[in-house]
Amino acid sequence: MACSGQVTSFPSMSDYSTPISSEAAPESQFTIIQEWDFEGEQLGGWSDGEITAYFTDGITNFNSHNEVGDTISHIVVDNINGVATQVLRFKHRQGEPGVGGVGEGFQMIARNPNDFTELYWSYNFRDGVNMNSNAGGKMPGFRGTQSTDCPIVSGSGYLAMLLFKRVGAISSYHKGRSGFGCPWATDQDSIVRNYGNYYNITGRVVLNDFTTGTPNANGLQEVWIDGVSILQETGLTIIEDEADTFKINSFTFSSYYGGDGASFTPTIDVFTYIDNVKIYLPDNDETLGTRNLHDVNEIIVTPDIITDRDFYFDTEITSAAVDMETASYPTPTPLHTNQRWLIDAGPGNTVQIDFTDGRTSGGDYLLFYNGNTTDSDELARKVGSDSDLTDTDFGFAANGRVTSDTRYMFVSYVTDFSIDWGFFNANVTFN
Description:
Layout: E1 30-36, E2 44-45, H1 48-54, E3 59-63, E4 66-67, E5 70-71, E6 73-80, E7 83-92, E8 106-116, E9 118-127, E10 137-143, E11 159-164, E12 170-175, E13 198-206, E14 210-211, E15 214-215, E16 219-225, E17 228-236, E18 248-257, E19 270-282, E20 315-317, E21 324-325, E22 338-344, E23 351-359, E24 365-369, E25 378-383, E26 401-403, E27 408-414, E28 423-430
Parallel strand pairs: 20-22
Antiparallel strand pairs: 1-19, 2-6, 3-8, 4-5, 6-7, 7-19, 8-18, 9-13, 9-19, 10-11, 10-18, 11-12, 13-16, 14-15, 16-17, 21-28, 22-27, 23-26, 23-28, 24-25, 24-27
């Protein structure tokens, strides 16, 4: 639900009349304010000194980089769109949520060279293949450089950034003055991101304006994944001081689990990756300079779009003689397990799966997609506890059945931190 109190209905991928482009957008479509791609940096642990030297417009709020002999930030080589490139990798230590203690994630604020009332960010982001599906944590976005401790008081800054949630979903994350508490967040209809795949994450923030010194509740934030709208917030009071020093003057590199407690704590060391960070304004966007939202049916053009969208998977099934089953079947699946299948029925065929046994527990996600790429339509999902998958109505011809209308079906099963109770077996048929 949008913060203005109006529900925004986000369509499925098949509702878009304009297909997602497979070609990168030319840089001439954007006015780039800042950009960071980590090329030329030395591979390996990224020291505090190297970080300070890299961000030439200055940094503040340096938290949790290289503590107790363990380097949180590394420059590594990864593959984006089929090309080897240097990226920034963040380590999230086993058993350590948040950035308040020793070595628990990464947070740093990079200054913009100027102050803005409207600005966009864009970056390519990947969760590691073994990412733990927990209650969530922080992702990069905009903020003011002033203190953002709660409660927000006169002279404080603000946050207008993102949270990652279970199975890679995204919500907003704010510390501001919009009357929703401190901090607060908005969930709408986020695309679920497959662990192991890169996605382009784009955000737009427009600060509220003032009437004779009084702040108006007319700020906004929009968020897109691979150009597809997932979040729109209006009616925001982000700042209460008209001074330039309170405008959009910094970008926070935040990547850490938290809140606190077991629901925010990874049980193994996991990693996230970021590259091609751009702070920019679009040159040919009719909403620029207005308080108008984009059409939720529009796929926007962004810098550094992801063109290699083949799902990352663990197991490929190309024969109907092979069942789809959890790795530990028939014993329960361990906590924080990510298991992914790509089923390929071959040209001219479609996939049908029928559960013969199985159940899911409270924090489980079981997701089915009609294709082999991250922009494929979602066929069905099961969230939470189900004592008998053979009797579950997934919306197809028979209970316990899911069918595709392409040669491919992608299936993802993700468990969380709570109960190791789920497992399943399913027959595979090619039609």
